[in-house]
Structures are given as structure tokens and as C-alpha cells.
Amino acid sequence: MSKRVAITRAQPEAESTAARVRARGHMAIVAPLLTIVPCGYDTSLHGVQALLFTSSNGVRAFPNHRGAQAVTVLAVGDSTAQAARDSGFANVHSAQGDVGSLAALAKRMLSPASGKLLHIGGADIAGDLAGDLTSAGFLVERRVAYAATAASALPSAYAEPLDIVLFHSARAAAAFIALGAPHADRLIAACMSPNVAETAAQTSWAQLVVAPRPREDDLLNTAFQG
């Protein structure tokens, strides 16, 4: 049976998720609770052996300057890796997981002696990528390329009948709860990771389900099986 699915993530990723929801025969309700705001930051690559991206937003916030496309890119997951390839990066590798997977990939592929690692990400990040890699001997610089600002009011779509709310991030779950979590006790909350679910669990749901891996295919599989 077709479900009405609210997509809370920021644009433009929300439209990509909506297309995947529709492809599975469900109704996608695009109702972002976050807005991506670019930040000015140092984009120099002197001494950098690899760029680390923990989201597609970080890729989009990186300028297309000469020489950057030759630098090795390690991406947290497949969608971020594809965004990097679409932006012109040629040497891109996906960790197919979370920041822990990304750190493990960096340790396997890179050497602390070959130069510093540059993590391009948002103002709020999950996990401790820099700490993990620093403990392995790497020099890691984190540069904040964007901020995800929470909505000050719920989009009108949340007043409509819904079946499932997709949460790709703890920030989106926190925003939903801060804005009253309407009808949560009648909805399924589908969460990308245990960290996201921990935040979502601050209110009561008809059901709360968690993807077995932090990948969108797993999130959608879990949401529609729940």
C-alpha cells in the first residue's frame, strides 16, 4: 500500500530522496526542516594529500578551483562520492558508511607522512573524524563550509495526513521535536542511524525504525518494511 512520506532533509538532497521514494511507489512530501547556508572559509590546498567529505553539501560548498580535481577525495558514502564525481573530481573513493567507515578508509589508503587531510564539512557534524585520524598520526584540518539552520516554523505539509517521516540527520529530528512533533504518535519515524534515532526518541512515535547501515537504500528499505 502506498505511503505518504515526509522528507525532512535540506534541498537539493530532498528532491533526490523524493524521486527515490516515488520510484518505490510511495507519495513523497518534500518538507525540509533544514536550510543549508554557505560559509566563507579557507580553500587553499597547500600540503593537502586528500579531501574528506562527510556530505554532499560539503562537496557543493567547495570551489571549482584549478588543481583541486586531481586531489584524492574520500567520501563518507556513495551519494557524496557521486556528488564529488559530478563536481569534476577524478580520484574519488566511497567509505559506504559513516564517519567511522571514512576514518577506516583513510587509514587503509593514506599515510600520515604524505601530507595533511582536509575535512570539508558543516558547522555540526556527527562523530569525531578528526580525533580518530589524529590518534592514528594524521594531521587533520577541519574547515566549516556551511551551516544547516533549522526551520523556525513547521512547513504546512506536516498538517496533512502522513505515514512516515524520514530523518537523515539528528538535526532534522531535533527540529521536528522542537516544533512540536505533530501527530508523532501516529507516525513511523525512519532514522538513518542510531545517533539520529537517539534524538528522535525524545518524543513518542507509533514506531521508530533505524537503518541497519547509514545508507539511503537501507533507510528506505527499513521505512517501508516497518
Q: Estimate the strand proportion.
A: 15-25%
CATH topology of the largest domain, anyone? Answer: Rossmann fold
The gross shape turns out to be elongated
Q: Sheet bearing the most strands, described?
A: 6 strands, mixed
Rg for CA atoms: 18 Å
Number of helices: 8
The overall average pLDDT, rounded, is 93
Q: How many β-strand runs?
A: 11
Under the CATH scheme, the architecture of the largest domain is: 3-Layer(aba) Sandwich
Provide the helix percentage.
25-40%
> How are helices and strands ordered from N to C?
EHEEEHEHEHEHEEHEHEH
State the low-pLDDT regions, or none. Answer: none
Q: What's the number of structural domains?
A: 2
| Top-tier CATH class of the largest domain | Alpha Beta
